[in-house]
Amino acid sequence: MRITFPRKKVCIKLGTIQLTSRRDRQLTAAREWENLEQTLAEVRQHGMSRVIGNVVPNINERGINAFSVPVFDRQGFVVCALTIMGHADRMPSDWDSASALALKQRASLLSQRIGSQR
């Protein structure tokens, strides 16, 4: 991946929209790409993704934990995902927690019912 840095930085605020320089966008994209690669590695290893302690402003200041598991069709394509979330202080974030394992089992059963061989 190549990251270039322009000579001028442009930052304009328009209400709640902020336009930033190309350099800032490229650095943000690079960080997001690294996070995506890490997330995909976890999904491949565990067969699901998770969120740990994310705070949802104006809704939940304590943070939430969540798991999401793909449901596959008979061609092996993801057709939807099953997700469970709860307060971080009430729902464990362990990959092998009861919530995570139950969700994974339900997604597998649903995949089988619609013809998946996975």
UniProtKB/TrEMBL annotation:
**Biological processes per GO annotation:** negative regulation of DNA-templated transcription
Q: Does the keyword Protein biosynthesis apply?
A: no
Q: Which Pfam families match?
A: IclR_C
Origin: domain of life = Bacteria
Supply the SUPFAM superfamilies for this chain: GAF domain-like (SSF55781)
Q: Which PANTHER family match?
A: HELIX-TURN-HELIX TRANSCRIPTIONAL REGULATOR, ICLR FAMILY, TRANSCRIPTIONAL REGULATORY PROTEIN
Q: What is this protein called?
A: IclR-ED domain-containing protein
Which organism is the protein's source?
Rhodococcus oxybenzonivorans
